[in-house]
Structures are given as C-alpha cells and as structure tokens.
C-alpha cells in the first residue's frame, strides 16, 4: 500500500482534529483552531495518506539559539492511526519532516518519546536516532 506524505493544509483540519483526539484524548481541538495554527506557519505539520485518507500526522519545529551556529530541529508530535500502523507511515513522515527541517538549515534533530513506548522507540531507532543520556524535566506553571 502506497503512503503519500505532504505538508498539511487547512483542508486537513478535521482529519487532524480526529487523529489528535485519538492520540491525546481530552477536549477535542476545534477545526477553526487547527486552521489558525496551520496558517500561523510557526510549526511544520505533515500528514500521511493511504488511499487518499489522512491516517497519520507529524509535527516539527526548528529553533535558533545564540549558543549554536546552526538551528536545530525537534519532531514534537507523531501519531499513526491504529489501522495504518506497521505500513511505513511513521518512517515516511520522519523522512519528510527531516528533509523539510534540512531545508531550514537544521543539522540536528531530536525526538522525545516515553521510555516505555517501544514501538515508537523502534521506529525512531530504525530511522537512525540514538538514545541520549539527556533527562527531560517538565513543570506546569501558573500565570499570576
């Protein structure tokens, strides 16, 4: 089965909302919010299609710091619907996002995932990513 990967457009908003709800649960994102986010051009969002149906998405961003000469990239989100798993969608999304980041001058990309998410870890490692000794710390902050 052929996987086609392309940049997401505002026409994909409803499919992205559906997939994001499968991925994250919680309160469903509204199509209008997703369209606004896609129009802002702050994030690289790609979709994978099988038989003209959006079955997966991946998101990435590039960052610049005065500390480093080149921008670095991060694949921030990746989700493949259950029916489309193990068919190459994630690998195709990763390759597409990496290429797009390279066009922005990125020379290094990182991906964060849970340390027990073995299917994702296997996919990322098969795409050439290596486990790092970094520790991610996270904190929710309140606005006063």
Topology of this structure?
Layout: E1 3-7, H1 13-24, H2 31-40, E2 44-50, E3 53-63, E4 72-80, H3 89-103, E5 109-111, H4 118-126
Parallel strand pairs: 4-5
Antiparallel strand pairs: 1-2, 2-3, 3-4
Walk me through what this model shows.
The chain is of the alpha+beta class. It has a single domain (3-126), classed as Aminopeptidase, CATH 3.40.630.30. A 5-stranded mixed beta sheet has the order 1-2-3-4-5, with helices on both faces. Helix 3 (89-103) links the parallel strand 4 and strand 5 (109-111). It has helices at 13-24, 31-40, 89-103, 118-126; strands spanning 3-7, 44-50, 53-63, 72-80, 109-111. The termini are far apart. The protein contains 4 helices and 5 strands, in the order E-H-H-E-E-E-H-E-H. The model has no long low-confidence stretch (mean pLDDT 93). It is globular and about 45 Å long.
Q: How are the strands ordered across the major sheet?
A: 1-2-3-4-5
Briefly note the CATH topology name. Aminopeptidase
Rg is 16 Å
Helix content: 25-40%
State the low-pLDDT regions, or none: none
What is the N-to-C order of secondary-structure elements (H for helix, E for strand)? EHHEEEHEH
Name of the CATH class = Alpha Beta
What is the compact description of this entry?
With 144 residues, the chain is α+β, with helices and mostly antiparallel strands.
Keywords:
144 residues, Aminopeptidase
